[in-house]
Each structure stands twice: as C-alpha cells, then as structure tokens.
Amino acid sequence: MPKSGKNPKKNGDEPKKRGNPGDFRGRRLEFLRSRTEELCKRSAAGMTRKWWKDVWAEYWQEFPWTLAINEEPPEDMSTYPMKSDSELTAEELALKKKTMDDTQAKLKRWFSYARTSRGASNPFARWISQLRRVDEQAPRRLVLYQSYMQDEEALVKINNRFKAEYPDLVGVKNCIKERAQIARELLAEETEEYREALKEKAEEEYEEAVEEYKSGEGAAVGEVKDAELQKESVFPGYVNHTAMLTITPRARQRLAVTVQPLLDALRALTGSHILLMTGKVIDGRFDVRTMQADLPVVEGVDQELHLSAWDPMGFKKGMNEILDGGRKAAEPNAEGPLTPLASKEDAPVVPSEAAATDAAKESMPVADAGVNEQGENEGEGVGKRRSTRKKRDAGEKRDASKKPDASKKRGGKRSAGDGDGAGDGTGDGAGDDGASEDDWEEGDWEEDVNDVEARLDALPLVKSPLRRQVRAMTPNSQANRLRQLEGGNTLYLTRESNIAWSQEQLEKLGLKESVSSLMAEVRAANKRKHDDGDGADGPSGKRRRKGADDDGYEDGSDDGGSEGDGEASGSVKDQGVARRRAGENPLQRVDGVPNWASYSKSQLVCAELGELWGKVVDLWWKREVSADFDGPAKGLKTKQRPSEVKGWIQRKRVGGPQPSITDVFGFSVTWWMWWVAMNPEWRTRLNNGRRLSRADETEGDWSELRAQTGPNGLLNVLICLRWWKAAERVVECGDWNEAVEDVLWVLQKLESSVAATGA
C-alpha cells in the first residue's frame, strides 16, 4: 500500500530534523538576545526610533551585507573584502538594498516574537528568558594591531590621532573601524624591536589564557582575578581556607546563572522567602556558597525584612549549626565549631555568585558569631558586668558596703563623664566619684546590660556606627537610647544611623570640634529667634514656603530671597536651614559671581563626560555671564519636571547630597517629557511627543527659552543631566548622549538668536 505524503528523500534531499532552528544562530543570535531587554523598555516608553537606527548601524558593521545569513563573520573584519557604495554598480546597489531590507524585516520579526514571548501569558517567561548555559569560547589569538590597541601608551596615541583626524566622530559610540585603521598605521610606524616585543608578549598572554581555559581555572566574565580580593571570606564570620579558592569561578558562575532566575521566579510568584545554600568539599574543606531571592525594589513601598532580620539570633544559631554539620561531614577529624574571624569592622555581605546576570541579587548578610562590631572579642568590662549579673541571678548577696554613696550620685543617674571606664568596656570604674562598675549595677542600671547585644540585633536598621555609640554610653543612657530606638519607625532608625555615621566620619577627619562649635552657634541663633518670636507664624513658628506659583512656574523666591517676598525675605529667610547648611548666602557674590553659580558650575564641570558636555557647560556659563547671573521671576515650567529638582531648589542650589536615582530609565523618560514641554511649539515632536526635531527650515521664535537664565533657568536642566549620567551604569549611554546633543543644539541656537536680534 503506497505511503501518503511527500518523500523526504526525493531529489536527494536529506530529511529535516524536527523543529525550526531559525535563521539566526551563533554570534547573530547572541547579538539579538543581548538587545531584547532594551527593546522592551524602549517599546514600553514609545522611544524605539533612535534605538532601531543604532541597532541597524551596529548590526551591519558586525555582519556585512555580502555575508550569507548562515555564515559567521571572520574574527578580523579587516581581512574581509568590502566595497564602498561609490565602488558598486547599479545592480550591486539594488542587490544591497534588497538584501538589507529583507534581513531587517527578518530581524524585526525575530524581535517581535521575542518580545511577545516574554509576555504575561506565561508567568515564568521573564525568568525562563534568563536561563542559559555559560558556554565559554576558547581564547583566540589576537592580531598584532589588536594587542597594540590594548597597550595603555598606545591607546593614548590612538585616541589623540582619532580626535585629530575624525573631530566629527568624537563622542560617537565605538568607531572601531576608524580606530583599528589608526592602530595599524601607528603600529607600522613603531620600531621592529617594539613589534617583536609586542608579539612575544601577546603570545605569552595567549598561551596563559589557553592553559587557564584547559585547566578550568579561567575567570568568569566580570570576575576579578586579584588574589587578594579572592581571599575575602566567602561566609561572614568564618575563615576562608586557602583550599576553598580552588573552586573554579566558571563552576560557580554556571550555578548562579542557572539557579538565580528560578529563585527569583519562585519568590515573586509565591511570596516566600527563599535561601539556597550549596556546599562542596574541596581538598578536605567544606566551602559554602549562598544565593537568595528578593523582590524588586519599588520606590515608595516599604520592603519586607530579609530572613536574617526576622529573628537575628535564631538565624545566626541555625547558620552555625548548618555550617558546623557540613564541616564535620566533610572533615571527619575536625573538632569544635568553625573558626571565627579575628576581627570585623562591618560585616561583609555574602558574595553573590551571579556576576554574569542582571537577575542576580546581593546575597544576605549573616549575623556575626561571637565577635562584636568593634572588631574585638567581648571587652573586659562587658564580661565583668555579665559575670556580676550571673552572680545576682544565682542568688548571691552583695556586700552592702559596696553601695555607692548617695551624695556621689547625680539625681539617681550617672553622668557621661563619671568613671574612666565609662563606655570603653574596660570596667576600671576609677572615675571622678570613685564608684566602680559593680557599685552602679544594683541601684542605677535600669536595664539588663546582658540584653544590649540581643536588643541591638533585633534592630536590623541600626547600623554599625550607631551600635558603637550605644555601646559606648553609660548604662542609664544606654537604656534610654535603646528604648528610643525600639520605639522608632523605619524613617527614624535610618535617620539616626545616618547621623551616627556622619559623626563618626567627622571624627576620623578631625572636624568634630569645628562642626560642634558651628552647630552650637546655629542652636543659639535659633533659640534667640524663638525667644524673640521672630518669624513665628502661628503655634508652629513655621512659614508656608511656596515651591511654585499656581500657574505651574518655578517661584522666583527660590533664588534665595528675591524682591517681592515681603516679610518672608527677612530674618527667617536670611537665616534659613538650607543657607546655614551651605554656610553662605546663595546670592552673595565673590568676584562678581554669586555663590549659587559658582557651586553649580563646580557640580557641572567634568572632563570625563566628554567634549560635547564641556561645550554645553561653557555655553551655559557664557549666557549666565552675559545676563549678569540674573533671570526672570518665573522660571521654567514645573509640569512634568523630575521630582529631584525640588530638593535642589530648596537647598538654594548650594550644598546638600546628590539625589539617589534608582530608576535611571524612568528618570530619563521624565527628563525628556519636561524638556519637550519647555521647548517652543514649532519644534516638531517625534516618537509620540518624546523627542524633538532639529530642522533649521522650521525655526521660529526662541524668546521664551532665551530668557531662562539665572538660578531658575536652564541650570536646572543641566543639573538633571549631570545626575542622570552619574546614576547611569552604562559607560556609553546613547539616550544621554542624544539629550546632551539636543541641549547643545538649543544653546547654540539661543546664542545665534541673541546675535541676530541684538537682544
């Protein structure tokens, strides 16, 4: 009976395997996967046009159009024959256009499928897309000019010639082709001895890389090979035995890349706290690695406590038992618990082995075992107090003669200056009044000193500097402070920890006395104001401070006390908190330049941000000098303005910390929306209103932006760009570069419009 269907071997064709392997494989597939995440973000924000343009340029530079889609490009593209468009015939140009159009259509279909497959229909899609094997390629021998490009001195020469020969490309991403050509030319100019030495060095490095690869000891991507860094403890509180370092970074990386996405998926879908601990016996030693799953950080939402924060003492005990059991199983002859570290300033974090994936989260800090925060074992004084407490618990009566004289007490409480050993853990007790530590325990200690460490451990938000301050207090002060901390909320504990850290840093820098005297003057001034009733407005003694007018423009009063403020421009504003923090009047001039302008320029100037950014700052400064650092009462529109600008304005644009931007992409989107909103209406909106054209033929009136000088002007736009770049993790950020280019273009147009109008 004849078989139905087509004969798979007809015409000599081999039968195809099941499943469609797709058109893109090897390096092409890696190229596409590495850009899928960014496409999803851009697509959600409606900002894909510029992204597609950049992707096409990168793709055709790496994969020439004459190369078949199933062929891998050569390692050295300089050996691949390529013609410019001027050298192609009309038929070849038509073929090139058709090939590129067809390939780009396939690429878009691939991206579309990859993006939709990450949708919510499969709750694990987000994490499944991150699961992959770490198949490391064998090291390859570099061409000599490539080794030349890795030499630091040669790289300086290459960069200098690149800037001289290609000034229009300065700041453009990569430009590998041009730099490679310059490297070949410079290498040819070097001496024969230099080239031979470079060749020998490159060959030695290649042989070392091959040897590491074959032995499995090669460092994983992004992992440091520094021996000193690798000697850090793999688990807080325990010795990192030298034998543990024999675990290959490649093996740890494979585990993290495979397991971490699964942990994150289970954490998000179940809400459960998950901690994975893996152990391995290496040369008779038990090595432990940990990874944890964590929910993503959401701004404005209180995060749940880690496992170690719910029950610190129980968690520490459980970890000790697990580690001790694993060590004894791996080392039958071992006795006693694992050896604690000799010292510990601030507990290190368990190293996360997911260095090669963004899905990895930092591992969990583990409570210390028997080591205090000051880097030493329990102090002599603490041990003495605890032993005394044990005696009291056992029913041992104290000698009445040891009670302190009532005349030597101060209101039943001990002052901070009583006793040489107060707060230092020595327990000498030879203070001004001659009372010992034991004498003070029975009548004056309101809380059990034995509980101090446990109570501190129960407050995970109390960081090390604040813990050290509490330990250094006298018993009564210590008890009062602990009650305050235990009754405080998250904001209070965070603030107090930050204050303690700042005080500790000032003391290390030798500035504690200076700052204390300064703050004493401030407190005295505040007390005088309060006693005189100056500036009081109602029971609270505070004034309502406007941040913006009702019409949505920045209030001119933000400049530190402009005319028109009425009574608010008096002593309350002149001695405001922001100005005292800066230690200077923002409007006060030094050599004709206001303090706000000098400070702002110091924040903006940064040679590392490139030549274009330097031009932006120079043009902005030129406009401010021309306007004598003055501006209109109403500044830029506040609609869609990044929220971080408000704090900058409230600080009078002098002093204060740089804002912490966690969502860089969200900040960039907000900045673009604000920038587009303040630009003239005649500028054509692109990408759903999130970009602007720079077409000269449609140019109109610039008067509204041209007037924006002074502290409420374009300075706020530039400072946002500075914050954006500081928070950006990517060295080459195309979106930020485009923003700088557009601001530079606008400043140049404003400059030319001033020259044309004579305004």
From TrEMBL:
Composition-biased stretches (Basic and acidic residues): 393-408
Key words of the record: Coiled coil
Coiled coil: 173-219
Biased composition (Gly residues): 418-429
Source organism superkingdom: Eukaryota
Region entry Disordered, spans: 1-27, 327-446, 523-593
Compositional bias ranges of the Acidic residues kind: 430-446, 550-566
Name listed for the protein in its UniProt record: Uncharacterized protein
Organism: Favolaschia claudopus
